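User: I'm new to structure prediction. If I give you an amino acid sequence, what do you actually give back? Let's try with this one:
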Amino acid sequence: MAKKVTTAEDKLRSLYALQVIDSKIDKIRIIRGELPLEVQDLEDEIEGLRTRVAKVQEELDDIDQHISDRRNKIAESKDLIKKYEEQQNNVRNNREYDSLSKEIEFQGLEIQLCEKKIKEHNAQKVHKQEVIDGAKEKLEGREGDLEAKKSELDEIIAETKLEEEILVQKSDAMKKKIEERLVTAYERIRGASKNGLAVVPIEREASAGSFIKIPPQKQIDVAARKKIIVDEHSGRILVDMELAEEEREKMDKLVVKEMKKIAK
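Assistant: Good question. You get back a string of structure tokens that encode the predicted 3D arrangement of the chain. For your 264 residues, that looks like this:
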């Protein structure tokens, strides 16, 4: 069982060391936590682009079918005109001739209408094709981004998995060295903080991340390391900068050492 720390300074060092370890774990999880969201967003965007391309392609196919139908109609009308013109050569009276002339005129108008519609359809095709080309170009770019993000995520998971496991073990071991009431207080303060900071050094006469100055006497008390002092404004446990830098450097070296040991 881990040996409990006794003096106020030892407790402060252990608490700040625990904070350093937990902050490292937080950083790993934040970095890893953002990338899956980015990957998911890219996958959703790619799916949306693919759906759009498929939908516009269907519309393009429908336009091609309409053009084909119009061309067939033109061919039918031309055949009818030819037929009616031949029949005009064998009519028996003007009434039959005029009737055939009206049919020929009607089919001529049908041809004009179909030709107009074909022009409109061709203009629509150009627009639809531009939409498809633009979506495909964007899709290609997003697929490249997705591949890069997935590769980055896989690398980060591989690189940080071992470090996170070591840090979690160190965090658990450190908590066993600290009084339960202090660990409970630490976790309560940490849980209430947006950035997970429960133990912070004094920077520029204020607790780290705060602009409210700490009274000079309290700064002296913190530097003396004779008792655990909480900042009344932020609610965080205070340590002096020298202690913080020593413990941060110590933890950095310890993690590197542990990772090298396991890597061997």
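You can read the tokens as a compact description of the fold. Here is one thing that stands out. The first helix runs from residue 8 to 88.
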